[in-house]
Design a protein that fits this description.
The protein has 11 helices and 11 strands. The protein is α/β, with parallel strands linked by helices and 289 residues long.
Length: 289
C-alpha cells in the first residue's frame, strides 16, 4: 500500500465507461480502479449504506440478507468505511459473492487502516476498488459525501439503508439515489435508537420502502428462479439447501440440525457436491451460486 503508482482509469470519454454513471449529476470525469473491471458486475447490483456505529441489530440484518443476495448473484457496492460498509463487504465475501468498494480517498491511501485485509480480499475475489481521486489523495470531510453519488449511481437495484442517524452520510446517499431515480430501501429500527432515526424517518416520510426481508428488494421472479435452481426431489437435500441459504454449516451442525448421523451427512454432502449444489471450504459447507 505504500508504493504509490498510477492505477488504470475509466474515462468518461471512452466507450467502456459505466453507462449508469454518465447520467449522474457531477459525473466523475475519470475513475481510478484496482481489480478486473467488467461492466457486467454492475448489471445486478445493490448499494448498502449505513452507520459507522453499527449495532448488533445492524450486523444481524446484514447476516440475514446477505446469503440471498449472493445466491441471486447480486454485486454489493459500499463505501469501505467502518460499520455497515465494512460488514457488508465482509459478509458478501464470506458467502462467496462479489463486492465493489468506492473509496473516499485515493487507492493508495488505506482508510480505515484496519481494512487492509478486506482491501486485499476484495481484489482476490473478483471485486473492484474504485476512487475518483488521485492515488495519494487523503480523504477529507467532503470527499466521503461526494463519493456517495458513485456508490448509488453504480447500483442497478437501488440503495439499502441499514442503520443511519438523522444527520448522516447515509441519508445523503438516499437523497442522491432518489435524485438519480434509484429505488431506496430502509430497514426499520428501534424508535429509541439514535442510529435508527434516519431509517425510520425515510420510511415515515415515504422516501424509502420499508424492508424487512430480501423479497422486498429482489424481484419476485428472480427469487422464484433461484428456488427452482436449488430445488431437489430429495427431502433431506432440500432441508440442507434451505439451511445453507441462511448460513454455511459444518458437517456436525448439519447432523445436529437434521438429526442424522455423521456417515449419512458426509454421504449426502458428497453427492450434493458432485451435483454442483454445494462446496466445502475451511470446514464449512457452502451453497453453490
Amino acid at each position: 500500500m505504500n508504493n504509490w503508482r498510477k492505477w488504470p482509469i475509466k474515462s468518461i470519454y471512452k466507450k467502456d465507461y459505466p453507462l449508469q454513471l454518465k447520467g449522474v449529476k457531477n459525473c466523475p470525469i475519470k475513475l481510478f480502479y484496482r481489480g478486473n473491471w467488467d461492466n457486467d458486475i454492475f448489471n445486478n447490483s445493490l448499494a448498502i449504506v449505513g452507520s459507522r456505529r453499527m449495532s448488533r441489530y445492524g450486523k444481524e440484518v446484514i447476516a440475514k440478507f446477505m446469503p440471498s443476495f449472493v445466491a441471486n448473484n447480486i454485486t454489493i457496492i459500499s463505501g469501505f468505511m467502518y460499520g455497515v460498509d465494512t460488514e457488508s463487504h465482509q459478509q458478501c465475501l464470506e458467502f462467496g459473492g462479489k463486492t465493489v468498494a468506492v473509496l473516499g480517498g485515493g487507492l493508495d491511501i488505506l482508510a480505515p487502516p484496519e481494512n487492509e485485509v478486506l482491501y486485499t480480499n476484495i481484489l482476490k475475489n473478483r471485486g473492484i476498488v474504485i476512487s475518483e481521486y488521485e492515488s495519494d489523495f487523503q480523504p477529507t470531510l467532503w470527499s466521503f459525501p461526494q463519493r456517495n453519488r458513485i456508490v448509488s449511481g453504480l447500483s442497478s437495484l437501488g440503495v439499502l439503508v441499514v442503520e443511519a442517524g438523522i444527520k448522516s452520510g447515509s441519508l445523503i446517499t438516499a437523497r442522491i439515489a432518489k435524485e438519480q431515480g434509484k429505488n431506496v430501501f430502509a430497514v426499520p429500527g428501534q424508535i429509541n435508537n439514535s442510529i435508527a432515526q434516519g431509517t425510520n424517518y425515510l420510511i415515515k416520510k415515504s422516501l424509502a420502502k420499508m424492508t424487512t426481508e430480501v423479497e422486498d428488494i429482489i424481484d419476485n421472479k428472480q427469487s422464484i428462479i433461484q428456488e427452482v435452481l436449488f430445488n431437489s426431489s430429495d427431502p433431506l437435500e432440500n432441508d440442507i439447501l434451505n439451511m445453507l441459504k441462511i448460513e454455511p454449516l459444518s458437517i456436525d451442525e448439519i447432523c445436529t440440525k437434521n438429526n442424522i448421523g455423521i456417515t449419512m451427512a458426509n454421504s449426502k454432502v458428497t453427492m450434493m457436491t458432485l451435483n454442483n449444489l454445494v462446496f466445502e471450504e475451511n470446514g464449512k459447507v457452502f451453497l453453490k451460486k
